[in-house]
Amino acid sequence: MRKRILIVTLSVTVLGILILSLLFTDVFYRGAVESAEKQLKTYGNFFDVSAPFTQAEAEKLAERLDASRVTYMSADGTVVADSAAEVEGETREDRSEVIAAIAEGEGFSVRRSKTVGENMVYYCFRTEGAAGGAPAGALVRIGLPLSSEIEYFVDALPTIVWFLLLDILCCLIFAWVATSGILKPVEKLTKEVATSSGGQVSTKYPELKPIAKLMNDMNADIGEKVAKIKEDNRIEKLVLDSMEHGIVIFRDASDLILINKTAARLLEYEENEPIALFSEDREIADSLAAGESASFYRTIGEKDYNFRFTLGEPNVLLITDVTESMAAARSKNEFIANVTHEMNTPLTSIKGFAELISSGTVPPERAESMAKTIIKQSDRLANLIRSIINFSAIDSDELPDYEVNVSELIGELIGAFEPKLRKKDIALRLDIEQGVKVMSRRERLVEILNNLISNGIRYNKEGGSLDISLTGGASPRLTVRDTGIGLSEEDKARIFDRFYTVDKSHNGAGGGFGLGLAIVKKLCRRAGWTLKVDSKLGEGTAFTVEFCPKKG
Ligand code: ADP
């Protein structure tokens, strides 16, 4: 701005000075012409009309008149004598001063003389003539050299240059003072804006008020936008940090763009440190070096994670907890292996005995016992299949619940266990509160009761006892307590697993397949009931079902 003001003022004043210089030159020139004309008119008085009208007299007069040029001409303008050149006989009738003198008696003109090669002011007048002197009507012309307008200008040029220099100095001072005066309030306003950190600014200068208003509006707008961006960032961070998946967006191991809390925890990320896993895990490091998107499974602590790398600009790593899905896959494989194994045992036995019988070499009394074994193993196989179906059916059982009288149900079921109780000489003690009802389905409660009671007999000692108690109220509770072999702490934690049996020897013979308690647990879990086991190795076991939904 300062430069601009300087250029404008400088241009205006320089132009002004030049125009003024030209004008003054013209005025001076005119003045000079006027005074030359007056001088020439005075010089005219020095002409002696009676003196001979000759070259010598012309030169004498010219000398007297301070080296002016004197020309004598006849009445028609033919040169008779000239003090500056030998031009006798030439005519000057076409010169404007001569034309004026012939017509009006006198005339002036200013022009460059071809004869003397100078700028001249001429004064020409007509004489009356005198005897022995100038002939009547003769013309006398006196000329004085006069600088031309350009010469005047050139003469004034050094002064003009000095003026210009002075002008530049003045302009510089003026531009500095003027711009300081104009810019000061603007600079003050700018400073205020810079230090207001988004606040309101004001100015006392009315010219700057629209700018201050504009800045305030812009500040408010920017403030709103910044607040929105901050809020968006906060929400984005909140979402990312509350995700159970880990997310890392990165350019390379030490150039991270974003990492959420889960990823930072799993990768043990330290701020400003490269992610160790990216270089320490050979497989991952190789894949990153090759620039290939890939997926890896890694175990951290007790959990399994899937690391999915999508490489690009930038790279993205998504870490997903796959513990459950992997456990489910493992459990499915285990289940299939267990089922196959459990089925294989009775089938081998059935096939073996059947082959022996069909060979015809077995005596009839042995064939009968073999056939009984085949029937027994077939029953086991059927039991196994039924148990598996029962176990799987629980998940898809969406039938509605209704009120079941558990007190009555125990009474109905217990009779069927009497032969087994008698066989092992087990004393049954019932402590059943009447009219205890729970919301369920009869077949589910039958499954639970049958499993718990049959286990209480099966794993009881000869001459032991079996206590079944049922209490009602707000939280009905069933307890089946035996005085049997009991469970070790390790087995207690595993008896609810599918196909888990403590004594592997009875598996496939008189014992079960390890599915009974798994079914009981699954049924309780689906109903929201609590199943507890309390046992001491060698002393006995008690299973308790609390028929009220778990809190929380
Ligand atoms: P099973 O059909 O083999 O009895 P369960 O799932 O009912 O299968 O039981 C799993 C295992 O838990 C049994 O093999 C047994 O070792 C143990 N168990 C179950 N009930 C009792 C009990 N009342 N006393 C001692 N051990 C028991």
Account of the protein in words:
With 552 residues, this protein is α+β, with helices and mostly antiparallel strands. It folds into 4 domains: 2-151, Beta-Lactamase, CATH 3.30.450.20; 243-318, PAS domain (Beta-Lactamase); 325-393, Orthogonal Bundle (Helix Hairpins), CATH 1.10.287.130; 402-546, Heat Shock Protein 90, CATH 3.30.565. 51% of the residues lie in helices and 19% in strands. It has 15 helices and 17 strands. The protein has helices spanning 2-44, 55-64, 96-104, 149-195, 209-242, 261-266, 276-280, 282-290, 323-359, 364-396, 406-414, 418-423, 442-458, 489-492, 516-527; strands at 69-73, 79-82, 106-112, 119-126, 139-145, 246-252, 255-259, 294-300, 303-310, 315-321, 402-405, 427-432, 437-440, 465-471, 477-482, 530-536, 540-546. The strands form 4 sheets. A 5-stranded antiparallel beta sheet has the order 2-1-5-4-3, with helices on both faces. Strands 7-6-10-9-8 form a 5-stranded antiparallel beta sheet, sandwiched between helices. A 5-stranded mixed beta sheet has the order 12-14-15-17-16, with helices on one face. It is rod-shaped. The site of adenosine-5'-diphosphate has 23 residues, from helix 13 and helix 15. Adenosine-5'-diphosphate (ADP) binds next to helix 13 and helix 15.
